[in-house]
Amino acid sequence: MLLDTSALLRLLQPLHPQGEIVRGATRPAAQNGLGLSVPHATDEPMRLKSMFPLLPDTPAHDARLVAAMQVHGLTAILTFDKTGFSRYAGIEVVHPADAAA
Q: HSE on the CB side for 101, CA within 13 Å?
């Protein structure tokens, strides 16, 4: 399952009202999750950003994510944007609140 940045950013903001929904949808360490603390998880994207060049995004952002998912054999995306991805056949759109249930 691909984790959309809309969900990731909420996960990294401890006070965001939807942050707890995303935390409930992420996998605990006992089930092959990373088990990172919130401060550690917050620091990781900055560390990764320093390791890779970031390219400007394009209006076809969702289409590029779906193409990458197809290349890697992924069929589901965890995102708050249910309408943006529902137009792509074969892609299961999972809202974080539904994954946590």
A: 5
pTM of the model: 0.62
Dist. CA 76–CA 78, nearest whole Å: 7
What CA–CA distance (Å, rounded) separates 25 from 101? 8
Q: What confidence tens digit (pLDDT) does each residue in 36-91 have?
A: 777 787 788 788 788 877 767 777 888 989 999 999 999 999 999 888 888 899 99
Rounded CA gap, 53 and 16, in Å?
28
- If 0-12 CB within 10 Å is exposed, 13-18 middle and 19+ buried, where does residue 7 land? buried
Write the burial class of residue 79 (CB in 10 Å: 0-12 exposed, 13-18 middle, 19+ buried): buried
What pLDDT does residue 52 have? 75
In this structure, are residues 80 and 4 in contact, taking their beta carbons and an 8 Å threshold?
Answer: yes
Q: Which of 18, 19, 74 is nearest to 41 (CA)?
A: 19
